[in-house]
């Protein structure tokens, strides 16, 4: 596929999430795809796994939005830098257990790396600063530097 087509597919994921149209967000995800939430050490598989991932964020941050800053692509990849903003009003499910709502507002920078095969998303790796995220929702106190 062309870089332009891959940018369009990646951009659709964020626009669909913002509309809460999860079926549209996963329409170009291959059945054998793998999603890695790298900081949380979480791996999900297939379109339904990716849909679960999006719904988890929506449930925990019902007012959340993705603000795309930059997307670059080639014939078999796309890289998207975006900012996620929202208020922690629901339970966030992570491998270590559930994080109950804190009511705190977050603003976190993300980078997603997409790989494509046969016109579909075959792999997504999502990166973000987990420590800053946890500080913002109030479950990690400020680390003190010792001189």
Termini separation = 53 Å
Helix content: 25-40%
CATH class: Alpha Beta
Please give the order of strands in the largest beta sheet.
2-1-8-7-4-3
CATH topology: Nuclear Transport Factor 2, Chain: A
Count of DSSP E strands? 8
Report the major sheet.
6 strands, mixed
User: Structural class, from helix and strand content?
Assistant: alpha+beta
Going by CATH, the architecture would be Roll
Low-confidence stretches: none
Order of helices and strands: HHEEHEEEEEEH
The overall average pLDDT, rounded, is: 93
What general form does the structure show? globular
Portion of residues in beta strands equals 35-45%
Gyration radius (Cα, Å) is 16 Å
Tally of DSSP helical segments: 4
Instruction: Give the count of structural domains.
Output: 1
């Amino acid at each position: 596929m062309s870089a332009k087509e891959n940018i369009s597919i990646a951009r659709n994921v964020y626009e669909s999430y913002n509309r809460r149209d999860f079926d549209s967000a996963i329409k170009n995800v291959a059945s054998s795809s793998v999603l890695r939430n790298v900081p949380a050490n979480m791996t999900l598989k297939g379109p339904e796994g990716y849909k679960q991932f999006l719904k988890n964020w929506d449930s925990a941050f019902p007012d959340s939005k993705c603000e795309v800053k930059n997307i670059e692509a080639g014939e078999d990849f796309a890289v998207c830098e975006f900012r996620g903003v929202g208020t922690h009003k629901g339970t966030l499910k992570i491998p270590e257990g559930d994080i109950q709502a804190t009511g705190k507002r977050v603003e976190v920078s993300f980078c997603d790396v997409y790989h494509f095969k046969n016109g579909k998303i075959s792999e997504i790796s999502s990166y973000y600063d987990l420590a800053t995220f946890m500080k913002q929702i109030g479950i990690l106190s400020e680390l003190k530097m010792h001189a």
